[in-house]
Structures are given as structure tokens and as C-alpha cells.
Amino acid sequence: MKKLLLAAFVLASAAFSAKAQQGSVLVYGSLGLQTQSANYVNLRNVDGESGKGTCFSIAPGVGYQFNKNWTAGLELGFSSNKSGDAKAENLFNVGPFVRYSQPISDIFSIYGQAGVGFESYKQDQSKASGVYVSVVPAISANIKNGFALNFGFGGLSFENTKVKDGDAGSSFGVNFGKSFNIGVSKNFGGKK
Questions:
Q1: β-pair partners for 148
Q2: Distance (Å, rounded) from C-alpha 108 to C-alpha 19?
Q3: What SS3 state is found at 166?
Q4: Per-residue pLDDT at 97
Q5: Average pLDDT value for residue range 151-161
Q6: Distances (CA, A) of 80 to 39, 57, 87, 129
Q7: What span is annotated as the signal peptide, if there is one (predicted)?
Q8: What three-state secondary structure class fits 109?
Q9: Which of 81, 112, 132, 168 has its CA 20 to 30 A from that of 120?
Q10: CA of residue 68 relative to chain centroid, distance
Q11: What is the per-residue pLDDT for 100?
């Protein structure tokens, strides 16, 4: 039960952004940790072997809020996935984002965030790099002093990567209602 609660807590993203304020700086991010035990069979593992594994991810971002609706900035991301005795798979991404927020009351806002950028993958001697595009919808509930709770429920993603000295590949993902995350947000400065 403790592992389940810990996994649920850690998988929830923590973000630092908030109620729209013109001229403010938006700082946000997410943090995740996923573990699997020795008796859990990874569905991606086609030979059916089980083993211990850990995946850690962190994704901060910073932006400038031009008015109550539009924010633009830079997002970063890093994840490391280690399974069994294999060396960790590491993924790094960086790129600009734009966010459109629409207040629907004094407490609630909805927003969509689109990002595009460069990503790099490495495991042992294998390296790959490419581009990504993502679109994520969310709902924000303003609490007090510019703090808010953010609720995400999926999104769209596209990746196009090329393995060093190898082939290129692409993937497209649609994930609405399959995942859910909660974050905390805050804006700094700006006009009220």
C-alpha cells in the first residue's frame, strides 16, 4: 500500500505557475518516479522476463505572461529509465512552448499548452536525436495569493528521431483520459 501511495504521489506532477497576471513570470515543472518489482512483467518486454526497474523524470519550464491569456517560454525535460542489469536509458529535451489560458470563473481556468523542440536519447553506445511536438490541455483551480492546483488529463504527442548511424523513426500518441496528474502553480510579479 505504501508503494502504491508513493507512486501515486510522485507520478502527480508538481508545477509552479498560476492565476493569469500580465507581465508575470511563469515557473512550472513536473516530477515523476515509477518503480516495478521483480514479479511485475513489463508489457514492453517481449520475451516475458521480469525484473526490477525505475523510471525518474523531471520537466521544468519558465515563461513570460504577455496578458491574461498568452504565455510563451522555454521547457526542458530529463528522464532516466533503468531496468534490471541494463544501463539506464536517458532522454533529454528542450524547446519553446506557448500556453493559452481562458478563465471560466474567479476560481477556474482552462488552458492548452503546445511545445516543440529537440530531444536526445542515449543508452550505452546507442544514441538518437530528433524533434518533438506536444499539445496538453489542463484545468487550473486558483487557491490564494496566485497559487493554483492544475489538473491534466492527457494530450497529443509526435516524435521524429534518427539513431546515430541508423534509421529514422517517428511516433504519434493520443492520450486523453488515460492519464491524470495534479500540480501546484504560481506566477511571480506582474500587474494585477
A1: 142, 185
A2: 9
A3: coil
A4: 95
A5: 88
A6: 21, 6, 10, 16
A7: 1-20
A8: strand
A9: 112
A10: 23
A11: 95
**How many separate helices (H) and strands (E) can be counted in the chain?**
1, 8
* Residue 163, phi then psi, degrees to nearest 5: -75, 135
Please name which of 46, 126, 49 lies closest in space to residue 91, comparing C-alpha atoms: 126
Looking at residue 93, what is its pLDDT? Answer: 94
> Which value, in Å, is the radius of gyration of the alpha carbons in the chain?
18
**Domain 2-188 class, CATH top level:** mainly beta
pLDDT tens, position by position, 124-136: 778 889 999 999 9
**For the whole prediction, is pTM greater than 0.85?**
no
Reduced to 3 states (helix: H, G, I; strand: E, B; else coil), residue 88 is: coil
Which residues make Cβ contacts (< 8 Å) with residue 167, sequence separation at least 6? none
CB distance 107 to 142 below 8 Å: yes
Torsion of CA 131, 10, 173, 99, to 10 degrees: -60
Identify which of 64, 71, 146 has the alpha carbon closest to the alpha carbon of residue 102: 71
Residue type, 2: K
For residue 118 the three cell numbers come to 529537440
> What is the Cα–Cα distance from 85 to 51, expressed in whole angstroms?
9
The letter for the amino acid at 6 is: L
- Residue 105 pairs in a beta bridge with none
Nearest Cα residue to 95 out of 112, 79, 74: 74
pLDDT greater than 80 at residue 94: yes
